Structure formats: structure tokens, C-alpha cells
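This follows on from our talk about sequence and fold. Can you supply me with one protein entry, sequence and fold together? Could you add the entry underneath, on a fresh line?
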Amino acid sequence: MKILSNINEYTVTQLNKSIKNIIENSFVTLRVSGEVSQVKNHSSGHVYFTLKDKESTISAICWRS
């Protein structure tokens, strides 16, 4: 695989922090609509699920608290 030297490389943590900052600074309140699927109740009390529409999916968590 050819590595391009002029492209910035980010760690997973750096990328996650950048995405978090973009979202938090772009929306005061965020409301998402979609179909809930793949619901999994974990023994911890958290619920894991996927929100989806015709083109995309978002993995989500509903915390026990």
C-alpha cells in the first residue's frame, strides 16, 4: 500500500475528539429521526441499537442511568 506523505495522520482518539468538537460546536440541540433496529439489552442495563434510514446507519447507546 502506498502511503502519501502529505496527508495528515490522526490517532483514533484525535479523530474522535475532532468529530465531537465539530458536532458540539455545530448544534445547540440535535434531534435525529430514523428506524430503530438491532436492539440489544446488555446485562449492565445499557441498551445498544442502530438508527437507520434508507441510506445510512448510526450505532447508538441508551445508558442505564
Remarks:
- The chain has a mean pLDDT of 91.
- The two ends are 45 Å apart (CA to CA).
- The first strand starts at residue 35 and ends at 41.
- Residues 12-26 form the longest helix (15 residues).
